[in-house]
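User: Okay, second chain of the day. Same drill as before: sequence in, structure tokens out.
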Amino acid sequence: MEERPAASTPQIQMRMQRQRRRDTAPEVTLRRALHRRGLRFRVDRSPITGMRRRADIVFGSTRVAVFVDGCFWHGCPLHGTYPTKNAAWWHAKLAANRTRDRDTDARLREAGWTVLRVWEHEEPDMAAAGVAAVVLDRRSRHSREPTRNLGVAPEHTRG
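Assistant: Same drill. Structure tokens below.
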């Protein structure tokens, strides 16, 4: 991709500079809804050590990574738009974002993670219900796994 072009107006430049990388309103609203459901998680973490990509919400013990995707930045099919100024650059940039998202999903799945993507326009309580269902399902599966033999013989009962 070519070098980033200058912003088309000072107002656009200010808007881009104010764009948050984390703790956006949709992320915070979803986190609050998850917290109300009793779920605890990590925020803005890389699920896999050494991977430069970070999930917005990470449930480490159940290996669930949640990404809250902005409609503009991730190409929402309902609300995604393309700027008319510097259009070619923006098309390439947004396509690269989607390609990176797919690559991130594949890497995490290969490592045994469940990846959930929530659009910023989704209703927070419904999104939280979906996330909670997956996390609780993963917890219950994890608790049903057979206990590993750690090399310690069980105590014999007297009979």
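The chain has five helices and four strands.

User: Thanks, on to the next one.
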